Amino acid sequence: MNRLLRSALPAAGPLALGLAVQLPIHDHSVVPMGEGYLASATNWMLQGKLLYREIDTGIFPAIYYITALLFSIFEPDILVTRAERTNKRPF
Length: 91
Hints:
By secondary structure, the protein is an all-alpha fold. The chain has a domain at 35-86. The protein contains 4 helices and no strands. The protein has helices at 3-22, 35-46, 62-73, 78-86. The protein is elongated and about 60 Å long.
C-alpha cells in the first residue's frame, strides 16, 4: 500500500462522518450572533470604527460588509438584516 494512502486512511472515517452530518443541513445557517449585534456593529463600521480593532467579533467579516452595503442602499433597519439572513427581499 502506498505511504500516502496509508497516512490518509485514518482521516477517512472522521471525514465521512462529518460529511454525513453536514450534507442534510448544508443549506441552513447557524450564526452564533444576534441580529441586533450585527446591525450595531455595521452601524459602528459606517461611523468609521474598525472591525477586529474597535469592534469585537469572531466571525468572517463578509457579513458585516454585505450588511453595510445594504444599509447604505436602504436604511439601517433590522428588517434589512433579517432579509439578508433569509435571502429574501427586504420590502
